[in-house]
């Protein structure tokens, strides 16, 4: 049990240090070509969610990417494995409730939001190393919601 106050900044730092010791570290991820360790220096991550219309004044799409290894930095170029082409990862975002902030760098275990011009799908892999595909990512087939005649 922890006692403290974020309002007066009492015991916040010891809580965060203890939390870091208790929280599990990023784990090894299975791929079609073997495994990827979180300590691997090559950047890799997979898209696990796509959200549209998060900003009411824009029709934006955000692809949520979970970093599995390496270091992400704003504006870097990575390989889109499914499309077999390089993409520049600009305007990465971090979300907390309704607030959105720009991410300068992120590490294995972090989740970032990337602007999606329509090229990302759930399960897509981005990497700077070998072209791997992560296993265990569900692929959802499209559903027919309406028919218009």
What is the mean pLDDT?
A: 87
Major sheet strand order? 7-6-12-3-4-11
Please give the largest β-sheet: 6 strands, antiparallel
Low-confidence stretches: none
Could you state the oligomeric state of the chains shown? single chain
Shape: globular
- For the record, give the distance between the C-alpha atoms at the N and C termini, rounded to a whole number: 62 Å
Which percent band covers the strand fraction?
35-45%
Structural class computed from helices and strand pairing: mainly beta
* Total count of strands: 12
Write a short abstract of this structure.
This protein is mostly beta strands and 149 residues long. The chain has one helix spanning 12-22; strands at 29-31, 34-36, 44-52, 61-69, 71-73, 77-80, 85-88, 93-96, 99-102, 105-107, 111-115, 125-127.
Topology:
Blueprint: H1 12-22, E1 29-31, E2 34-36, E3 44-52, E4 61-69, E5 71-73, E6 77-80, E7 85-88, E8 93-96, E9 99-102, E10 105-107, E11 111-115, E12 125-127
Antiparallel strand pairs: 1-2, 3-4, 3-12, 4-11, 5-10, 6-7, 6-12, 8-9
Please tell me about this protein's structure:
The radius of gyration is 18 Å and the shape is globular. Helix content is 7%, strand content 36%. It is mainly beta and 149 residues long. The mean pLDDT is 87. The N and C termini lie far apart (62 Å). It has one helix and twelve strands. Strand 8 and strand 9 (99-102) form a beta hairpin. The chain has a six-stranded antiparallel β-sheet, with no helix packed on it.
């Amino acid at each position: 049990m922890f006692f403290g106050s974020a309002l007066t900044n009492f015991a916040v730092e010891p809580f965060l240090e203890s939390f870091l010791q208790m929280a599990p570290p990023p784990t090894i991820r299975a791929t079609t070509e073997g495994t990827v360790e979180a300590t691997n220096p090559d950047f890799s991550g997979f898209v696990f969610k796509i959200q549209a219309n998060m900003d009411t004044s824009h029709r934006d799409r955000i692809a949520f990417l979970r970093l599995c290894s390496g270091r992400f930095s704003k504006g870097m170029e990575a390989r889109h494995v499914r499309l077999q082409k390089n993409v520049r990862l600009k305007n990465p975002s971090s979300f907390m409730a309704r607030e959105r902030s720009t991410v300068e760098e992120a590490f294995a275990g972090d989740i970032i939001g990337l602007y999606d011009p329509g090229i990302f799908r759930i399960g897509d892999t981005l990497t700077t190393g070998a072209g791997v595909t992560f296993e265990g990512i569900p692929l959802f087939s499209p559903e027919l919601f309406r028919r218009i005649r």
